[in-house]
Design a protein that fits this description.
The complex is a heterodimer. By secondary structure, chain A is α/β, with parallel strands linked by helices. Chain A has one domain: Rossmann fold (3-Layer(aba) Sandwich). Chain A has seven helices and nine strands. Chain A is globular. By secondary structure, chain B is α+β, with helices and mostly antiparallel strands. Chain B has three domains: 136 residues, no CATH class; 127 residues, DNA polymerase, Y-family, little finger domain (Dna Ligase, domain 1, 2-Layer Sandwich), CATH 3.30.1490; 81 residues, no CATH class. A six-stranded antiparallel sheet of chain B has the order 11-10-15-14-13-12, with no helix packed on it. In chain B, strands 3, 4, 5, 6 and 7 form a five-stranded antiparallel sheet that branches. In chain B, helix 9 runs antiparallel to helix 10. Chain B is rod-shaped and about 120 Å long. Classes of the chains: A alpha/beta, B alpha+beta. The interface between A and B is large, with 63 and 70 residues. Strand 3 of chain A pairs antiparallel with strand 10 of chain B, so a sheet runs across the interface.
């Protein structure tokens, strides 16, 4: 081996990263759609060909809206997306209005978690999909590693939703996020594992919301509207 | 033999059959398939996978190829001079038995010896037929062969030598049928979306319908889906024979094997993946969504299998949640406000949805029926965005129906 071609060149390789700066990637990342988040993500967006773990317990925080810009971009590029074991039924019109092409979206809702992980692994290993999103209620390090191995080196965006209690477990995923509710309707994102220096601050992202934020104390404005005839409501009887 | 003849269609559309030999005309597709070595290797692998034992040989004339194969030489010759060398070394045993007997009396052992004898005398001794055969083998007279006529409808049966009870055994046996199907499709430049494999037991039969995401003629995909299905099912009885029937074969345009491979590779991989998932988990668990024009949220999305064509969808603009609950969850009302782990804050609304008077009444459980609801976007105490409604019809009450996640 040529000894003179050593350090500088090796450090310039995309698969080598130094601990004090964010890693770059040979496969271009997909912009998350949030400038603030892209700045903190190694490669400037969601990484492809590696697993991104999202830890969240609540439904309705904006956890899907976080992925929506990237999903719709992949959809625009004409690639297929697959959702494995989504927590609820998909409301088609909402997904379409967020830029997802239903013709290229497959949903897998297996009855058993084992089948979900199998399906996710198959989907990741095929390498032909744009995005794979998988929801799990419990996974161990070995299963996460299998998924990471399956996706490695492909062009696929891979997201794995896990419950928050699993944040202490070691994981093969190269990027791990913890979600929380921010103030004023924002979504708090804590990048607690990434290829680069640790990100200590929590990012507050303006994810897409269906309505304007309103402080709780103002909620009297949006109080129950003039009641409609509802048989059991005492107030309704008064109005009637 | 018919099975093998069909399979050979994956190499060339011109196949002909003799009682013990299968002849493939490959001269016109040598370049397409990447040369003689590749074809021979491919053929050998294909035959081995089907568990047949054959002797292969290649030659510029069909007669010569036949003889070289029968003699077990395995000789591959493309030009006339190699052909001559290979043929002359052949023993006279390839000729009809009457000719062999009289040639032996002359002391001839190889075809070279036989050809040294004067032609007129030879014709008298061994018959004009044998002389004709030799002339054809050496390419001195033309040797037209009747092409094998590929059947119009694909249906092949295979009697199993012994009854089979395991998925692996069935898969192994079925490979002969699926590779024949792949060849048959290739010869017709067609693909299928559906094939049916019948497992015939001594008394009854089991029918397996395999579906594919798009038109395919790929044996690997046939086998892959079949493997998932066979591994998932439990056999009712040992299987005596198999019968494979192809669904409607449709022409597959622009599937030029080498030229456009890359463009189709991704689509094929997705098709193969979706088939595998469906084969293992079933159509109820692997699906895609289509929109249905209905104002009632629970009726606006419908499931479709991956094998149906998806219609285009126009985006709607009003805010709708990404997730819907299976069934609306009843919420308590505390101090006149909806309550779920704390008071809910109403952020927007109401939006009245009133529809579906035509549906329900007689049909029972599954119908959503006539609805009259006021929808609100609400914020829970743990900052989750919910889609709730108040039932306007008796007995009223608050319900949670979706999440803006």
């Amino acid at each position: 081996m040529d000894a003179t071609a050593s350090l500088g060149e090796i450090l310039a390789r995309p698969d080598v990263w130094r601990g004090d700066r964010l890693a770059s990637s040979a496969i271009p990342a997909v912009s998350s759609g949030f400038a603030q988040l892209d700045d903190e993500l190694p490669g400037g967006g969601w990484p492809r060909g590696t697993l991104t773990e999202i830890l969240s317990d609540s439904v309705g925080l904006g956890e899907c809206s976080l992925l929506m810009p990237a999903l719709s971009q992949m959809s625009e590029e004409g690639t297929w997306s697959i959702l494995v074991a989504p927590p609820h039924l998909l409301h088609g019109p909402a997904w379409v209005s967020r830029g997802i092409d239903l013709a290229r979206l497959a949903v897998v809702s297996p009855k058993r978690q084992r089948d979900a992980l199998w399906a996710a692994e198959q989907a990741l290993a095929s390498g032909a999909l744009g995005t794979v999103v998988c929801w799990t209620t419990h996974t161990d390090a070995r299963q996460v590693r299998r998924l990471q191995v399956a996706v490695a080196g492909s062009n696929t965006l891979a997201f794995l939703f896990r419950p928050v209690r699993e944040n202490a477990e070691s994981s093969a995923a190269t990027l791990r996020l913890l979600l929380s509710a921010g103030s004023n309707g924002t979504l708090g994102v804590n990048l607690f594992k990434r290829r680069g220096p640790p990100c200590t601050r929590t990012l507050y992202l303006d994810v897409s919301r269906p309505a304007k934020w309103r402080e709780k104390h103002e909620s009297t404005v949006a109080r129950t509207p003039p009641a409609l005839p509802a048989a059991r409501s005492p107030r309704a009887i008064v109005l009637a | 033999m018919n099975t093998l003849a069909c399979w050979a269609g994956s190499f060339t559309p011109r196949v002909s059959l003799t009682p013990d030999t299968l002849l493939l005309e490959i001269g016109s597709c040598l370049r397409l398939l990447g040369g003689l070595e590749k074809i021979v290797a491919g053929a050998r692998a294909g035959i081995q996978a089907q568990n047949f034992t054959v002797q292969l040989a290649a030659a510029p004339t069909p007669m010569a190829a036949q003889w070289l194969a029968q003699a077990g030489t395995g000789a591959l010759s493309l030009d006339a001079s190699t052909l001559r060398r290979h043929l002359e070394a052949l023993p006279i045993a390839v000729l009809p038995s009457k000719a062999v007997a009289s040639l032996t009396r002359f002391g001839a052992i190889t075809l070279a010896d036989a050809r040294k004898l004067p032609a007129a005398a030879l014709a008298r001794r061994i018959g004009v037929d044998s002389l004709q055969f030799m002339a054809r083998a050496f390419g001195e007279t033309p040797d037209p062969r009747a092409d094998f006529a590929f059947p119009d409808q694909f249906a092949l049966s295979l009697q199993l030598p012994a009854s089979v009870e395991t998925a692996a055994g069935l898969l192994f046996a079925a490979r002969r049928l699926t590779s024949a199907l792949a060849g048959w499709l290739a010869a017709r430049q067609a693909g299928v979306r559906e094939i049916t494999l019948r497992l015939l037991h001594s008394q009854e039969e089991t029918q397996l319908v395999l579906q594919f995401a798009d038109l395919t003629a790929d044996n690997e995909r046939f086998e892959c889906v079949l493997r998932e299905r066979l591994e998932r099912m439990s056999l009712r009885a040992p299987v005596e024979s198999l019968r494979l029937e192809a669904g409607k074969a449709a022409f597959r345009p622009d599937r030029n094997r080498l030229l456009f491979d890359d463009a189709h590779a991704g689509q094929d991989a997705i098709g193969a993946l979706l088939e595998r998932l469906t084969a293992r988990l079933g159509n109820e668990q692997v699906y895609r969504l289509t929109l249905h024009d209905d104002h009632r949220p629970e009726c606006a999305t419908q499931r479709a299998t991956l094998f149906e064509k998806a219609p285009r969808n126009e985006p709607k603009t009003w805010p709708r949640p990404l997730w819907l609950l299976d069934r609306p969850e009843s919420l308590a009302e505390v101090d006149g406000r909806p309550y779920r782990h704390g008071h809910l804050v109403l952020l927007a609304g109401p939006e009245r949805i009133e529809s579906g008077w035509w549906d329900g009444g007689e049909s029972g459980d599954n119908a959503t029926g006539d609805v009259r609801r006021d929808y609100f976007i609400a914020l829970s105490s743990n900052s989750c965005w919910l889609w709730i409604y108040r039932e306007c019809r008796a007995p009223g009450g608050w319900f949670l129906q979706g999440f803006f996640s």
